[in-house]
Structures are given as structure tokens and as C-alpha cells.
Design a protein that fits this description.
With 83 residues, this protein is an all-alpha fold. Helices cover 94% and strands 0% of the residues. It has helices at residues 2-58, 62-82. The chain is rod-shaped, with a radius of gyration of 26 Å.
Length: 83
């Protein structure tokens, strides 16, 4: 009976260890996905910024000034989410 209990305990510990390892793997995967999404979002914002600035430098019209201001506001919002 003692051997049975010891084996039962060992199996439970192994199952707990495997469950904890899987939980850590899932957490790491979620962090990686979030980091990739943030990197992609940052790249999109930077591309919008560059395009808006170039358009304004080429043609400093009121329309391009307004677009540049919108991109500036978007960048400010993005900065605020990082704080």
C-alpha cells in the first residue's frame, strides 16, 4: 500500500510539473504575440508619420497640415498607452 501511495504522489507531482510548464509556455507565447503586435503597430504609426511629414514637406497645404496634426495626435495617444 505504501508503494502505491508513493507512486500516486510521484504521478501527481509529475502532472503538476507538466501543467506548470505548459502554463509558463502559454504565458511566454502570449508575451511574444503581444510584443509582435506592439512592434507591428509601432511600425504602422512610424510609416504614417513619415508619409504625413513627407506629404506636408512637399505640399504644405491646410489638408496636409491637418493630416500631420492627426498623426501627431495618434502618436501622442500611442505614447500615453505605453505609460
Amino acid at each position: 500500500m505504501v508503494g502505491f501511495c508513493a507512486e500516486w504522489d510521484r504521478r501527481n507531482q509529475e502532472a503538476d510539473r507538466l501543467a506548470a510548464a505548459e502554463y509558463r509556455r502559454i504565458e511566454e507565447e502570449q508575451r511574444r504575440i503581444e510584443a509582435e503586435e506592439q512592434t507591428a503597430r509601432r511600425a504602422r504609426i512610424e510609416a504614417e508619420r513619415d508619409l504625413a511629414l513627407l506629404n506636408y514637406l512637399i505640399d504644405p497645404s491646410d489638408r496636409n497640415r491637418a493630416i500631420l496634426a492627426q498623426v501627431r495626435d495618434l502618436i501622442q495617444e500611442y505614447r500615453d498607452t505605453l505609460s
